[in-house]
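Lab notebook, bench 4. Still working through the backlog of constructs that have no structural model yet. Next entry is a single chain of 228 residues. Request: give me the structure tokens for it.
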Amino acid sequence: MTAMTEYYGETFEQVWRERLTEQLLQFARNHAWGWLMRWNSASACPLNQQDLEDILSEVMIATLRFKVPDSAKDWEPCLMAYIKRVAHRIYCRFRARQQAEVSLEALPLHHQPRGSLDDVCAPEDEACLQAVAQGLQSMPRHHALAFLLHLDADLAEAVLDAGGASLEQHLTCAEIRQLIERAPLRDREIAELLGLTPRAIIRARQHARERLRTCLENLANLRGESGT
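Model written out:
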């Protein structure tokens, strides 16, 4: 009888905790979304829907870490203040990132930072070009295109030639040769080609640049070891 009582007691507690968690999450979702929409509608440069949903996801994760203070008689005011503070902090972080990316996109084309291979190895170096081509094939297609189409035309063509048919197949872009002749393309042009936003293209190129930098640094280290 005691074992059965303990079993039902544990089951009831588990169900109660699950229902309380669902209630907390629903409460957080409703209030956080309302604040996000209010802040965003008052902003001169509002965030897009995807950004708002990403913020909401982070708020929901933070809600799972919320603990009601022992001295509190009602959890709702405590959770509401916690959610508002967390949501506002994350919203401000996204806005700061947006402003940095918009500022970068607003630069004239000749002032925009482009992916460069010169700081690691010479672009006419075949091994270097092959390393870049292999790196592009190992990353998502939109990352590779965001980087490749922002290079100078001669360098982009050299990378594409080094990658051969396998790189062109990975890029799955029938007009890649014609596009490279017009390179470097603006972020808005690349975004229209891929069905993304210019901000997404900037982020994709940043990821590609970091990944390629690692590949090229590894190549440079190998050369240094072989030369000693």
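Notes after review: Residues 103-113 have pLDDT under 50 and may be disordered. Residues 111-227 form one domain. Flag for follow-up if needed.
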